[in-house]
Amino acid sequence: MVRQQIEARGVRDPAVLAALRKVPRHLFVSEALREQAYGDFPLPIGEQQTISQPYIVAEMTQALALTRNDRVLEIGTGSGYQAAVLAEIAYRVFTIERIRALYLSARRLFDEMRLYNIVTRYGDGSKGWEEESPFDAIIVTAGAPEVPESLIAQLAPGGRLVAPVGGQHTQELVRVTKEAHGIRRTDLGGCRFVKLVGEQGWKEA
């Protein structure tokens, strides 16, 4: 998976590649889908949510430019796979999930895998986690109309945020960097994510 789908498409960060080799992706999907777990495509995880394709996980993680001392906020725990990858690189990962069944499932899996540097929360991730801010990096794993201002406010100076931004069905992956004189935004290419539902995302139907 790593050699053919990720390295071959330009991901070079050695810490990201090592994390992807270490985290067993098949544990984050249902038994019925485990034979497909290492394919380069998203898979359903229930509750109308998906686990992102491996390349997107790698691309977003690399864009965060993480160091071993970083505190990272993830919006949208989902299956827990992205958080597990982040936990292999960063000092601590804070992750928020609004769907209770997914939150409980991911929390159990983190405990089983002894990923004790992951801190979980059940709630509206679009508002971030102000009590634990500022964060060195923030990753949003669902598409929003715009990057929530609350998340930008919770970035530390020099912090990086990666998020899909755009419509309900297709988005542009963007990286926002908080610099001394303002915000620098970089477009990373097109993508497709489920909707970020919440106070500062899309409203529930």
What is this structure's SSE topology?
Layout: H1 2-6, H2 14-22, E1 43-46, E2 49-51, H3 54-63, E3 71-75, H4 81-87, E4 92-97, H5 100-112, E5 118-122, E6 135-140, H6 149-153, E7 155-166, E8 171-179, E9 182-191
Parallel strand pairs: 3-4, 3-6, 4-5, 6-7
Antiparallel strand pairs: 1-2, 7-8, 8-9
Structural domains: how many: 1
Number of extended strands: 9
The structural class is alpha/beta
Global mean pLDDT: 93
CATH superfamily: Vaccinia Virus protein VP39
What's the CATH class label?
Answer: Alpha Beta
The number of distinct helices, counting runs of at least 4 residues, comes to 6
Give helix % range.
10-25%
- Main beta sheet strand tally, sense and closure: 7 strands, mixed
Description:
There is one protein chain. The protein is of the alpha/beta class. The chain has a single domain (2-191), classed as Vaccinia Virus protein VP39 (Rossmann fold). Helices cover 24% and strands 29% of the residues. The strands form 2 sheets. A 7-stranded mixed beta sheet has the order 5-4-3-6-7-8-9. Strands 1-2 form a two-stranded antiparallel ribbon. The chain is globular. The termini are far apart. The mean pLDDT is 93.
